[in-house]
Amino acid sequence: RMETDCNPMELPNNTGFEEDSDYRDFEGTEVKDMRLEAEAVVNDVLFAVSNMFVSKTLPCAEDVAYINVETRERNRYCLELTEAGLRVVAYDFDQTDDRLQTPYHETVYSLLDSLSPAYREVFGNALLQRLEALKKESQS
């Protein structure tokens, strides 16, 4: 279970996590590049929003990436993706607002579910269609 009240920006820069092998993933490689992770997030839910893409303006790094999303309600958000999860950092594309203290969400599904009723409906319908298709497959 992930806590939502930790702000990683308050952590000191010299935590030493990079050198500590306990903080590597299972293949023994360094923490994955967040830009690749962000691309995967976008590809996963693009069908259920109006527009979504990895920011080309804000800097991506090993530990952070920014994703712009426009919901079907036409609301725009800039999301920050870190090891802590995803959170809204601005109410427009390619922006960050340090005064915004929004909670982290473990998944993009959870975050979009909280922001967009239309996302919830589209995603739920897609899930139902997939289940129906699986049901038909198992009956044939």
From TrEMBL:
GO terms for cellular component: cytoplasm. One of its GO terms (biological process) is regulation of canonical Wnt signaling pathway. Coiled coil: none annotated. Residues 34-134 form the GSKIP domain. One of its GO terms (molecular function) is protein kinase A binding. Pfam families: GSKIP_dom. InterPro entries: GSKIP (IPR037395), GSKIP_dom (IPR007967), GSKIP_dom_sf (IPR023231). Belongs to the GSKIP family. This is GSKIP protein. It comes from Grantiella picta. The gene is Gskip.
